[in-house]
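Hi Y.,

Following your request, here is the sequence exactly as I used it, all 374 residues.
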Amino acid sequence: MRFTVSSTALSSKLNALSRVINSKNSLPILSDFLFDIQDNVLHLTASDSENVMNTHLELTECDGNARFAIGNHDLLEAVKGFSEQPITFDVNLQENAVKISYQNGMFSLPIENADEFPQAQMINEGAHVITISSNLLAENINRSIFATAQDELRPVMNGIYFDLTPECLVVVASDGHKLVRNKIFTIQSEQPAAFILPKKPASLLKNILQKDGGDIEIRFDERNAQINYGEGQIICRLIEGRYPNYNSVIPQGNPNILTIDRLGLLAALRRVQPFSNDSSNLIRFHVEGGTLQLDAEDYDFSKTATERMSCDYNGQPMSIGFKGASFIEILSNFDCQEVIIQLADPSRAGLVLPSEQPENQDVLMLMMPMLIND
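Below is the corresponding structure, written out as tokens. Let me know if you'd prefer a different format.
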């Protein structure tokens, strides 16, 4: 059978799908793209056995239906350099080969039996459903994914936690040292439900959703989630286990309130951080009156740095230690002009909030303190 497709449309779809494929696979066919041509539509699928991503595009010409798999590397390399032009696939299922013709030439590749490609896990009947706008989901994944852990002993910390409650949808990520909690008040459910989205499908969504508009539907049960977006879907295995009680680590009643320019503090931390000790990365924050002083020192190499900046502070004079790199990550994942830092005492976590909350949301980030030697 034969079909014709736009070169740039095909290249764009294959590039997005290729992010699912691992460099080493348990099954050789997982290195392939699955092509499924039905009724003048090309359905494309890629999988790593735990995550399945599929998308589709209209064909300009087609004379039948077929299913087959093609190795991802050779096909990607072949089509990525094309200018916009029609590409014609001549598929010979008897000889397990495909001839691909374009304006100035052709190439041929072996194909494999599509029946060997593993099927995606089905979502159980009675699954929970969340409908969320593409922009809102992308924004919350972007804001949270940096705080996920890489912890073999506590795998539940390695993903983003979606907690659906009667009041709101809460999106949480934490590695035990820093935490991000986003509340979305426009999404609620009388029936509470929750799931932990692994980092890989979250990263795939992060790359797709920036280009895609409209609403996203997330259907999930105890083990799997199906995320339907405008031009395709991702089906992924969820992280199983109980997520820690994130509310219990957020300190309440923090009387010391610091308001400061976010980009100014970010720039100051980037200047001071290289002078901190390599192993601890400790930065001392001393705040008193209208001045925040940042201090870093590495006595092993006789390095020290101090920088002062003006701020608005209501509270007792305080010195508290934070890991410089983590605080830089937190500030980098806000997009507001000023941040509010709420402190209780040097032994309790500091809270970082935007000076103005996004519409219908409540965003909070938390940073555990480090011990400082006075």
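Residues 150 and 158 are 6 Å apart (CA to CA).

Thanks again,
Q.
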